[in-house]
Design a protein that fits this description.
Butyryl-CoA Dehydrogenase, subunit A, domain 3; 3 domains; Butyryl-CoA Dehydrogenase, subunit A, domain 2; Butyryl-Coa Dehydrogenase, subunit A, domain 1; single chain; four-stranded antiparallel sheet; 11 helices; globular; 9 strands; alpha+beta
């Protein structure tokens, strides 16, 4: 088995790391405090081709692979998870929905500016009353001539309020499938469409430099041709894409876990108690060893999931393993980083307090830990 990265993958990883350390790390605390999106950083990401890494050049991408994208997400998230989230939603989810299931016309119209980073997308799946049970979607879309008329509400929608947000891919009930079950499909809703209402900005515990809002559809009319793919398989489409989204959350979690470990290791080498640096105390060494080991294990299963996707193999269970393990290990690392810092970790002037606030949502977004364990149990035949 070959665990080495290609020269191109190393280049993307190193470029992403250098960018994160130079452009994002010095501003991460300020962006968190101001609760605002950094358009200038996103523009620089676009210039470096980060937004379109896994897509062909003819669609505005860089012609790279999915492992390269997730190496980039990991490095950016080590500096500020909000920028890993930006790539997760725009590139992994929205871009993939259009690339994998859209028509050639839809790809040229919507994917190209997304992959180039000129525009940002968002995915309208979660609703006020619908979270893990995606099949219970309440938003409805009814055909009226050559248009879909959409009514409903969405919640926790990332990127919705950004000035360069171009499309929302919204899930909605569109009727009944041939087997009698409800048809749930994804429809491209361009920003600015009458009846699309962008709601309030949500005040979050973490991911604060990532824009998150509620949105509403009130007799929102979009062309019939904006439906993505075969209407018989719409639910399967977005569930498939969310599998890749789980790899992205795993990568975000690894980046955050590394940030926690880095801060804890650095502090433990500076802090002196009982006459020696605390990194020399066995109980602190145990914590640091567990943090480092868990990061490596999370990377291995996450990179395997990427490798399988890049080779058109089924990666469902690896994506679940990666998302579940990496998100829970990141929380462990955040807890231990605070513990190693002691009382100082409870102060907002130390980065570890910010990491602790950011980490919890990783166990919830793109499928909760409970859902991952339920899926894994099903694959085990339970």
């Amino acid at each position: 088995m070959d665990f080495s990265l290609t020269s191109e993958q190393k280049m993307i990883r190193d470029m992403s790391r250098e960018f994160a350390e130079k452009e994002i790390m010095p501003r991460a605390k300020e962006l968190d405090e101001k609760n605002e999106f950094a358009y200038d950083i996103a523009e620089k990401m676009a210039e470096l081709g980060m937004m379109g890494i896994p897509y062909p050049e003819k669609y505005g991408g860089s012609g790279g692979d999915w492992l390269s994208l997730h190496l980039c997400i990991e490095e950016l998230s080590r500096a500020d998870v909000s920028f890993g989230v930006l790539l997760d939603v725009t590139t992994t989810v929205v871009g993939q929905m259009v690339y994998a299931f859209g028509s050639e016309k839809q790809k040229k119209k919507w994917l190209v500016p997304l992959a180039q980073g000129k525009e940002i997308g968002c995915f309208g799946l979660t609703e006020p009353n619908v979270g893990s049970d995606a099949g219970a979607t309440e938003t409805k879309a009814v055909l009226d001539g050559d248009h879909w008329v959409i009514n409903g509400a969405k919640m926790f929608i990332t990127n919705a309020g950004l000035k360069n947000m171009s499309i929302i891919i919204a899930t909605a009930r569109t009727g009944t499938r041939s087997d009698g079950r409800a048809a749930i499909n994804s429809i491209i809703v361009p920003n600015g469409t009458p009846g699309l209402i962008i709601g309030r900005k949500l005040d979050k515990l973490g991911w604060r430099s990532s824009d998150t809002r509620e949105i509403f559809f009130e007799d929102c009319r979009v062309p019939r041709e904006n439906l993505l793919g075969d209407p018989e398989h719409g639910l399967g489409y977005h569930l498939h894409v969310l599998q890749t989204g789980r790899i992205s959350v795993a990568s975000i979690s690894i980046g955050l876990a590394r940030a926690c470990y880095d801060a804890a290791l650095r502090y433990s080498k500076e802090r002196i108690q009982f006459g020696k640096r605390i990194c020399k105390h066995q109980r602190i060494q145990d914590k640091l060893a567990n943090m480092a080991m868990g990061v490596k294990l999370a990377q291995l299963v996450t990179y395997e999931a990427c490798w399988k996707k890049d080779h058109d193999l089924d990666y469902s269970i690896e994506a679940a393993y990666a998302k579940l393990y990496a998100s829970e290990h990141a929380k462990y690392c955040a807890d231990q980083a605070i513990q190693i810092h002691g009382g100082y970790g409870f102060l907002n002037e130390f980065d570890v307090s910010r990491y602790w606030r950011q980490v919890k949502i990783n166990e919830i977004g793109e499928g909760t830990s409970e859902i991952q364990r339920m899926n894994i149990a099903k694959w085990l035949g339970c």
